[in-house]
Amino acid sequence: MINEKPTLKSTGKALLYLLPMLVITITFSIYPIINSLLMSFYKDYNFYTDKVGSWGLDNFVYLWNDPDFHLAVRNTLIFVAGVVPITVVLSLIIALLLNQTKWVSGLFRTVYFLPFVTSTVAIAMVWNWIYQPDYGLMNYFLGLVGVHPIDWLNDPHYSLLALIIMTIWKDLGFNIILFLVGLNNIDAGYYRAAEIDGANAWQRFWNVTIPMISPITFLVSVNGVIGSFKVFDQIFALFQGKPGPGKADLTIVYYLYEKFYTEYKYPIAAASGVVLFGLILLVTLVQLWYSRKHVHY
Amino acid sequence: MKNLMNKHWGKSLLAIGAAAVMAITLAACGSSSKSGANQKVQITFWHGMNGVYNKALQGIITDFNKSQDKYVVKGTAQGNYTALQQKIMAAAKSKKLPTIAQTTYTTVPDYVNQGFITPLDPYMLKGSDKLTSADKSDIYSTFLTSSKYDGKYYSMPFSKSVRIMFYNKDLMQKLGVKTIPTSWEDMAKLGKQLKSKGVAVVGFDQSFDMELDGLIHQAGTSIVTKNLKVNADSKKVLTATHVIWDMIHNGEAKTAGSDFYGDRNFTSGKTLFYIGSSAGVSSMKANAPKSLNWATTPLPSYLGQKGTELAGNDIVMFKSASTEQQKGAWAFMKFLTSKKETTKWAEKTGYVPLRKSAVTSSSYQAYLKQDPTAKAAVDSLDFGFQAIAFKGFTEYRTDVLNAVDAMLTKKQTPEKAMGDLQTSVEKIIQENK
After folding, report:
1. Which CATH class is domain B161-310+387-431?
2. Which CATH class is domain B34-160+312-385?
3. B398 vs A240, A245, A262: nearest CB
4. What residue range is the signal peptide (chain B) (predicted)?
5. Domains, chain A, with CATH or none
6. Taking 70 as the threshold, does the pLDDT of residue A97 lie above it?
7. Predicted structure pTM score
8. Do A262 and B394 touch (CB under 8 A)?
9. What percent of chain A has pLDDT above 70?
10. Are B102 and B315 in contact (CB under 8 A)?
11. Planar angle of CA B403, B405, B409, nearest 5 degrees
């Protein structure tokens, strides 16, 4: 079958198989993307009758001059820089540990995976309690090592950190599973060969494990960057429908949400979405370029 | 091989066919339900009521449907108010709006601007089913005033609450506080005395925007006036803001922060008083420890003036509904605000009755005797007021909340925060002209 020459009939058949997915992707992804790209250039736009007065770059100029949008970009970048590296390193370490001990690892896998399958709202409610300044667990543990109580959710200096900590915890599970798959796929022969050559545990890890799981590390970090750039639901749930105290947790998607749903400024919301798309594209391209040299398939 | 492949072909074609049939039947189901209710005109009503509130509302809807045989009202809870707003927006875009929906009167200017809603005047002021002048003077005037925009009535009041003050009787006795302060001036004095005892005199919810609106109103002005003049950095507004801000920054008053509602600080004895919504009485009853001896009272006066901001929702009618549906929708709105139904609604939910005759009715008076915590809200109605709605109000509200938030979390002074607010609100009004 693989060696069959493509004919009109076989192409048509392939298309038929692809059709369901294509229809879904085009209606729910491609079409909205093109539409919002167009919308970001609308001026004098009536959302409900779809009448466009004129076209222009005004929406992007608005974003360029809006201090709130600058704050949103800044917060998003801090969030991504805070969440992604720590998630990657921590989940790799935990995956390595789980891979070492065979017994109870099943239990721990489930435990670590639970946050991933739990609804964000439920997680946020629990963390809301953990972060409570007077009787929360977080301050209790910090108190044990002599740190003064912190008002995590009401102090603008700490609320972004609070969000980052919660997100890392939430994202760990899925990444651990990915790393475990990667670790299990490494041929034991490489380790044996390295041992024969006299490599110690650290050398084996650095020269065998790290290069061999680099495709997974790449996947996890690209996934993490894209996911973190789009952060919204955790903020909405943790701060009960507000972008944190003093807008300290205002991110690009939250900004988009506010422009769209509470200020009825649809083209500006679309424009901020386009900027977000550009940012993600840029960072992903840099990651791809880096992976050419350092990822071994 | 060929035969097998044909079989596969047949299968996939069959699957596609089945999917198509399903899609068609589903679509047909969706459109046929409109004419299903025995020729009666169907009126769809979207609201944001949950739990006990939803149950009480469903009861009223059932009553209405039984009371006549021309119309059927179908109420659908859409989650909370935010979700309701979002669904109205999505429905407007896809042209599938309901006949009527619950919304705050402050969104009316934006809805009118976007061409969603229609004035109630043809039904409310004319025709056989209009509101009589007796009806109009019976409904509290502030509710009807806020229903009016641009000289026309666009909404009917429905679920309304006021700000009231809760007090902790046991804690008052323990601290030796004999009388409840009846003015903000006394409240500030008491706050200074109680500070040394580690109790904040008064607690607010996460934001004190409603209380601030109240003080500004009592000072005889508002952040945005009827003529759309912005007063956020005027002397009167700043002085009023300082009343609350000074107390909070001296540790004599407390906002709820991430607890969101101030009832937790109140029930745990961190604050002696708590200013909250009268609709919160039912949740206070459910959450406060049984041993806690609490009661309610109207808000203190400021500069000798009384005032409390009314909050809550109205019902609006959408332009897209047919004339028959609009007639039925009006009949339902009138039914909701009738003496009997508004009394029932108030007794079941803790929202305030909309008519004076409902408050004085024997049924409601008996209810107040049984449950004195509801009295503060009703006593406040005579000096209740509502904000002035204008185009861009939702955006304005976000800015006010941001200003209050900046004063609380970033410790900005009223001069700075209200000064920034002045600039941003002027811009909103300019953009919406």
Report:
1. alpha beta
2. alpha beta
3. A262
4. 1-27
5. 8-57 (no CATH), 59-294 (1.10.3720.10)
6. yes
7. 0.86
8. yes
9. 99
10. yes
11. 130
